[in-house]
Amino acid sequence: MMFASTVLNYMDRQTIALVGPQIKGEFRLDNTDFGWVLLAFQLSYALFQVPAGYLVDRWNVRWAYAGAVAWWSLAGTLAAFAPSLGILMVLRAVLGVGESFNWPCALRTTAIVLPPSDRSFGNGIFNSGAAVGAVVTPLMVPWLTERYGWRTALLITGILGFVWVGLWLSVLRGERARLFAGRSTAKVAASTDDDFGQPAPWLSSRAMGVFGAVAAASVLVCLSAYWVGRPAIWWGITVLMVGPLLAARFLPMQELKGADWALSLGEIVRLRRFWILVVVSVSINVCWHFLVNWLLTYLVEDRGMRYLKSGLLSSVPFLAADVGNLGGGAYALWLARRGFPPVRARTLVMLVCTVLVTAGSLVGLIRSDVVVIGLIAVMAMGTAAFMANYFAFTQEVSSRHTGLVVGILGGLGNLFAAGFHPFAGMVKDSFGNFAPLFVLVSILPWLGIGALAMGWGSEPEEAKPS
Q1: 226 Cβ partners below 8 Å, 6+ apart?
Q2: Average per-residue pLDDT in the chain?
Q3: Which residues contact 190 (CB under 8 A, 6 or more apart)?
Q4: 262 burial via Cβ count (<10 Å: 0-12, 13-18, 19+)
Q5: Which residues 6+ apart lie within 8 Å of 148 measured at CB?
Q6: Using an 8 Å Cβ cutoff, are 125 and 326 in contact?
Q7: Helix, strand, or coil (residue 28)
């Protein structure tokens, strides 16, 4: 079921990229402008992964998952009827709010039902839905768009999610449903009381002032977009997402005790492993989302392919990515069962994956379409296998706050992936091709694997009061 929800998740988000030529034509957009259309979804997706992760740790995952899929399916369906570009972008942002719950819900579930040695493979199974969705959507959407228009393509992909909701609630009943019950806020508070004493009635005035200043600064930066342009919106959201992390890191834990969310945040940001995974998440998310959102445009505009042919061929790299999801997780499991410590097994697999991703840097030098598709397929396979093992690391940062950790890391990764879309469009408009972008995204994962190899360590960390 989590595999199926992830397929639907990617179908709803990727459809907009596949009907990009039609949207650009109807609304008279260049690639930079279309990058902002892509950003509308991914920025809200990034922002709401943090509260999504926090809430998933406290809610019944069965109901949280059903509500999230229903929410994003409704937003995807309504987008088919958007009368203007502005409303379309708003609905894409609403879609991002619902989809932000998918990975926190799924990773919270695998953390509940699977032991650490099996999580890479389990994560690879459900996460392979992203690659399958990215395979199915290019096969279906261009065909629907050619015959019935881009709005019909959005409508059909949106409606499918409501079928999933009914199946999910039907399958998980009785004893199965009770397995998915989340911890209550009271239980989480009780667990933190053991380390930090009884909670205060509210945040300290200093903490309230710091968090309030971060929120105010975020609003001011966003409003400055009126004078300095659209990039200020991304910077404002960055302040809102990164500012509280830095505030919670440097404020004493005693001053965070009055609010469960602040105390949880304070624990997480004091862990070295969390900051290592921030680097990993940003590096791999930018790479993956560049492929998902710009591959068809690259094939049409740089390679001169017809729309339907580019849709068909763009499914090939994501089929390879599906192999990577399952193969990367299975290879880590195979190594672990032959005596490799799980951390070493995952790191070794991720190093091999990083080498595979680097193949994408050669795309701009090759004339043959067949070779180019092959290189991008190798790149996508390495990216997906990398992510399957990265997800297993996120589940071992803090056992008490799995959902929140996943939400923050996913949010930050998608924040930078969102900001990369207008930049990618600008590079394409300026240089006339995507070659420099393929080089850049192909080398980014080396930053992540380097941080992981040098900083993870072998002993679990525990947050300490300060």
Answers
A1: none
A2: 86
A3: none
A4: buried
A5: none
A6: yes
A7: coil
Query: Residue 373 pLDDT more than 70?
Result: yes
Q: Give the residue from 452, 461, 457, 410 showing the smallest Cα distance to 127.
A: 410
Rounded to whole angstroms, how far apart are CA atoms 160 and 163?
6
Residue, of 247 and 261, whose pLDDT is higher: 247
Residue with tokens 């399916």: 73
Q: Flag whether pLDDT at 187 surpasses 50.
A: no
Would you state the torsion angle of the CA atoms of residues 15, 16, 17, 18, taken in this order, to the nearest 10 degrees? 50
- Sign, Cα dihedral of 334, 452, 47, 383: negative
Q: What is the DSSP letter of 182?
A: P
- Please state the pTM of the whole predicted model: 0.83
Burial class (CB in 10 A: 0-12, 13-18, 19+), 344: middle
Main-chain dihedrals φ then ψ at residue 85, nearest 5 degrees: -65, -40
In terms of Cα–Cα distance, which of 103, 105, 78, 106 is closest to 92?
78
First to last CA, the chain: 42
Q: What are phi and psi of 270, to 5 degrees?
A: -90, 5
Per the rule left: phi > 0, alpha: psi between -120 and 50, beta: everything else, 229 is: left
Write out the two tokens for 330.
Answer: 């299975």
Of 25-29, 114-118, 269-273, the poorest mean pLDDT is in 114-118
Could you report the per-residue pLDDT of 374-421, keeping only the tens digit for each? 999 999 999 999 998 998 888 788 878 877 888 899 889 999 999 999
Could you tell me the domains of the chain?
2-199+257-455 (1.20.1250.20), 200-256 (no CATH)
